Amino acid sequence: MATSEGNGTQANRMGDPREFRGMNLLDPDEISPEEWSRHAALDKQPSGRPLPSYALWPNIGRPDVYKRWLNQVYHLHNSESVGLSAYLQYYAIMGWEDGFRYILRGCQTRYSRQTVVEMLAATYLHSPTMGMYILAPVIEESLASYSEPEPPSQWPENWKVDPAAFDTGLDFTRPDLTDDERTRIEEWYREVTGEVPGHVRFLGEYRPQVLKAWRGRFETVVKTALPNQAFAYMLLHYEVLRLNADGIRDYVLLARGLGMTKVQVIDCLTYGSTVFGGAGAYTLIDRTVGDLLREW
To answer: Into how many domains does the chain fold?
Structure first.
């Protein structure tokens, strides 16, 4: 698919906006019963039906509010980049069962079960309790009946599964972090991201054992099925959702260092901030990583 990063133009891969998910988005003020029936019957709907927050607007006489939201969704997804199902992570953290099941249904058409397991391992970096405590039975039940896609979707050419790329050579059989090991961690970041993140400096100085334990988790998420770049995408997506400026910068640098393209990073930033962050999130992103993106 042809795309020009220089001028921001993108080929249309989403079809006609007058037929998007059964609706004519170019006529936002009107919605016929037939149009809503087509839309409500789509198998992509969460839990097999439109969410109450979606159905609300036609019911109270403002279908334009919902249609204009869908129009933004249409343009959000109209990109050459991979559409990673990163909201699986966020809905698991938040404990939203309907949302988790909805995203997981889409995963079954694209990813192997092991890919989803490693996506959840990445999620567990942020949520060892919280929502995953609530959804643990749902996750086990869903994975037990997981239907493998045949064949799975292809990852972008620049996305590779390479767990060795995260290895800093630490001896995890010993809890103490030696001076050499701390240097190894710092050199890994300098080589991959171009700078040592604040959390590494802080923990290295004040809680070195915590830093080593964290690296033990971070370095072992990717095993056999989740590309390194997908891991970086998920880390960045979560920091965008929680509007964490330092985390956004750290993981844009990581994503770039691991080989994601500028378009893929921008799509992740946009995907994460459109749903929950809004205009303020975009301003935060511009202030935090605008310099990196413009110089890329």
So the answer is: 3
Phi, psi torsion values for 234, nearest 5 degrees: -65, -40
pLDDT digits (tens, 9 = 90+) for 217-265: 999 999 999 999 999 999 999 999 999 999 999 999 999 999 999 999 9
Compute the chain's Rg from CA coordinates.
21
Residues 54 and 190 in one domain: no
Q: Tell me the per-residue pLDDT of 258-272, one tens digit each, with 9 for 90 and over.
A: 999 999 999 999 988
Q: Does this model's pTM top 0.85?
A: yes
User: Which residues form the domain of 241?
Assistant: 87-157+223-295
Neighbours of 7 (CB within 10 A): 7
Residue 191 lies in a domain: yes
In the chain, the N- to C-terminal Cα span, in Å, equals 21
Other beta carbons within 10 angstroms of residue 284's beta carbon come to: 17
